[in-house]
Specification:
globular; three-stranded antiparallel β-sheet; 74 residues; mainly beta; 9% helix
């Protein structure tokens, strides 16, 4: 049991890359109201299966984020 707890509580430092240029980043847009969500993606991003609610004032639609080769697919 002690060996398991020692492994469980072991922490390691993880390097986090700081984003310095926001011009290279794109924002996810809601397909219903075109609100630009506070979710960013790069030019080489690929994504599917991520479900988010829209943060627009009167929208609140629930949609899937689909990104292929750095372009959002609506």
């Amino acid at each position: 049991m002690e060996a398991i707890l020692r492994v469980f509580f072991r922490t390691e430092a993880v390097q986090i890359e700081k984003i310095t240029e926001k011009e290279e980043m794109n924002r996810v847009k809601c397909p219903d109201c075109d609100y630009q969500m506070p979710i960013f993606y790069g030019e080489k991003a690929n994504c599917s299966g991520v479900m988010v609610p829209c943060k627009g004032r009167n929208c609140h639609a629930f949609f899937e984020i689909k990104i292929k080769d750095g372009k959002q697919i609506k």
